[in-house]
Amino acid sequence: MEHGSVRDPSSATFCFVDEDHTLANSVRFALNQEYLLYSTVLLIFNIYIPRVSFCGYSIPHPSDAKVNIRVQTTGDPAREVLKDACQNLMMMCQHVRSTLDKAVDDYRRNPTDMDTK
Amino acid sequence: MSEQESSSDEIMSSEEEEQQQKEGFSYWNLKDVERGQLPPHIRKQGARVHCKSDAPTNTETLQYSGSYASMGVDNSLRLDPFRENFRIKIIALDKDKMEFDMIGIDAAVANAFRRILISEVPTMAIEKVFIANNTSVIQDEVLAHRLGLIPIKVDPRLFEYLSANDTPNEKNTIVLKLHARCNQGQPRHTVYSQELKWLPNGSEFAKESEKPDSKLSTYTSFSCSQDSLPEFAGNPISTMEDIIVAKLGPGQIVLKAESDVWMMDLIHAVVVCGIKHDIDIGLLVLVRVLAVMSFLPDTRLQVQVLRCLVILQEIELEAHAVKGMGKTHAKWSPVGTAWYRMFPEVVLLDNIEGEDAEELMKKCPSGVFDIEDAGNGKKRTKVADSRACTLCRECIRGDEWEKRVSLHRVKDHFIFTIESTGALPPEALFTEAVKILEAKCERVITELS
């Protein structure tokens, strides 16, 4: 659920029901990492610009199973940035999962050689 | 500054260090920081918690991608470098415990995995107990609670949640039966969880129905036997074997009030009891009878005594296990516990030689330090096993030592330990936890679209 102003979509508060610190803190982390890539004309430098100017979360009351996430962006609609952040977090999770599977396979095959990328 | 520079840290190359030490410290000799890079001490603050003797410093993680935007430094975590740097090292893995190193991930995500493991990965646990008979000393509600905490060795992914309106069926309920008794003359009987027997056909207890001629119904409605399902065919459901559920003693004697009883009846009761059970019990009954009599005003025994009953201690019950999550009740938690600690890094800031080396080695209770031969018969401290460090900070007690030894934690290196309770192997639990976090993200995305 989104509580935002109609005039300015770049800042909004989202309310996640049935969630707690587990998701909220991870999403806050992912939001903080959101960036925009500007390639310069000659492609010499890549300039990364943060998309989020502020984000934070709070649990309004410990008895209510909900969290509020505040997102203020540097221009993009907050909703889109939040979606992208969740997408990124999902991709990270997928990578963690495949790395673990590989590590377990490697360990089973050869318990002494432990390093898996 | 000098402290940090002389530490043999990967962030700063040793050549740079040596050169600075040779030249002596001067601001004019400092090299310009390259654009797009942070000076080494700032990088170090971001990468390490510095554990000092009074309190740790630099505990926060620098999350914001624009933290150093004004210096042209990009602090964002991009997927490609993440994929390149992320590593998992398995240290130990067996059927119920796993220890692994997770390197290159933020504490927010590592903590999410830990929290999900403890409270959101589902398992099966006993939720309803139908007690047909319980004459043991353990009360019904305590018994039911103990049963609930017994881990059931079954893959919870094969079951569905039982919601309030559902009837218990073969897809959402596991029925277990327990019938234990301590017979007369037997020693105390300890009931272990392995005596819980799986009933693949569902409940055997008949429901009391209002209509006397209605069809016999039980507390579950299984459409087929669970052991006919392919996933359980050669793989019967069992519980952890060696958990004590209750202890049953030999029977107890109960004197039950009846109508007028005369002396002859009493003697008869005692004799019958003696024959039926054994003489000791007969005598015990006699003693009890006399004791009761002595309190009665009327010695002609027109009193309300008694029939002698020997009640055997017995438990007969049915336990229904359903799927649930640890956040509802800890009995559904699939882990004994799951935890992580940041990798400890021990850095010697100084050459510690001779007696000091011996002293340092003795100071450390977990054997982090060792002594090496520095040549020409000198002994020198080396860090042999920094992983063993528990950060007790014994080695940096006193001003002297804090200048010589430095303790850090690596912020993105987690030593993760998972202890499974037996439903799933620990590596499968971790995979499930990661999947749950993915599902949460997906839910947010679909709700926003």
From TrEMBL, chain A:
Cross-referenced InterPro entries: RBP11-like (IPR036603), RBP11-like_dimer (IPR009025), RNAP_AC19 (IPR033898)
Domain DNA-directed RNA polymerase RBP11-like dimerisation, residue spans: 12-98
Keywords annotated in UniProt: DNA-directed RNA polymerase, Transcription
Domain of life: Eukaryota
UniProt-recorded Gene Ontology molecular function terms: DNA-directed RNA polymerase activity; protein dimerization activity
Record bears the keyword Transcription: yes
Gene Ontology biological-process annotations: transcription by RNA polymerase III; transcription elongation by RNA polymerase I
Annotated GO CC locations: RNA polymerase I complex; RNA polymerase III complex
Protein family: Belongs to the archaeal Rpo11/eukaryotic RPB11/RPC19 RNA polymerase subunit family.
Protein name: DNA-directed RNA polymerase RBP11-like dimerisation domain-containing protein
Natural source organism: Salix dunnii
UniProtKB/TrEMBL annotation, chain B:
Residue ranges constituting the DNA-directed RNA polymerase RpoA/D/Rpb3-type domain according to the UniProt record: 97-447
An example molecular function term from Gene Ontology annotations: DNA-directed RNA polymerase activity
Gene3D superfamilies from the UniProt entry: DNA-directed RNA polymerase, insert domain, RNA polymerase, RBP11-like subunit
Gene Ontology annotations for the cellular component aspect, listed alphabetically: RNA polymerase I complex; RNA polymerase III complex
Residue spans of biased composition, Acidic residues class: 1-18
Pfam families (alphabetical): RNA_pol_L
Keywords: DNA-directed RNA polymerase, Transcription
Residue segments, region Disordered: 1-26
CDD domains, sorted: RNAP_I_II_AC40
UniProt cross-references to PROSITE patterns, sorted A to Z: RNA_POL_D_30KD
Keyword Zinc in record: no
Name of the featured protein: DNA-directed RNA polymerase RpoA/D/Rpb3-type domain-containing protein
Species: Salix dunnii
Highest classification ranks of the organism: Eukaryota, Viridiplantae, Streptophyta, Embryophyta, Tracheophyta
